[in-house]
Amino acid sequence: MLEPSTNNDLPAIPGKRYFTIGEVSELCGVKPHVLRYWEQEFPQLAPLKRRGNRRYYQRQDVMLIRQIRSLLYEHGFTIGGARQRLSGEEAKHDINQSRQIIHQLRMELEDVLIILKR
Q1: How far is it, in rounded angstroms, from Cα 115 to Cα 23?
Q2: What is the DSSP string of 7-50?
Q3: Phi/psi at 50 (nearest 5 deg)?
Q4: Torsion sign, CA atoms 22, 23, 29, 30
Q5: How far apart are CA 116 and CA 30, in angstroms?
């Protein structure tokens, strides 16, 4: 999954159910056309498509995009290598994804606690 240093560089994922391609672009530091390309290259990345073929990404999609971004931009994987790495990690992916969600929620709850203590 992503290293902690990578998580700090990107904004926190809000507690929404669905995200537009523009929101995901900002959350992941990747342009929308790159996200559309990655959908073709990574079968795991399949956002919901609704009216007018608009894409709606879920939290797990955002986390997968962050992982793809890390593999390609920070670790120097090719797209084929990243695809292979992700397909080999699907078993570990659920556990790591759960840990990342728990970590993110804990950080958000700590922020709420600080606000409430004021």
Answers
A1: 25
A2: HHHSPPPPS-S-B-HHHHHHHHT--HHHHHHHHHH-TT---EEE
A3: -125, -155
A4: negative
A5: 34
Instruction: Give the three-class secondary structure for 84.
Output: helix
Tokens of 67: 């992982």
Answer with the residue of higher pLDDT: 105 or 98.
Answer: 105
pTM above 0.85, yes or no: no
Instruction: Taking each helix axis as running N to C, give the angle between helix 21-28 and helix 32-41, from 0 to 180 degrees, rounded to the nearest 10.
Output: 90
Note the residue count of the chain.
Answer: 118
Yes or no: say if 86 and 48 are a contact pair by the CB < 8 Å rule: no
Take residue 49 and report the two structure tokens written for it.
């498509």
Question: In the chain, what are the domains?
Answer: 4-117 (1.10.1660.10)
Indicate the pairing of strand 54-56 with strand 48-50: antiparallel
Largest Cα–Cα distance in the chain? 50
Give the residue with greater pLDDT, 10 vs 26: 26
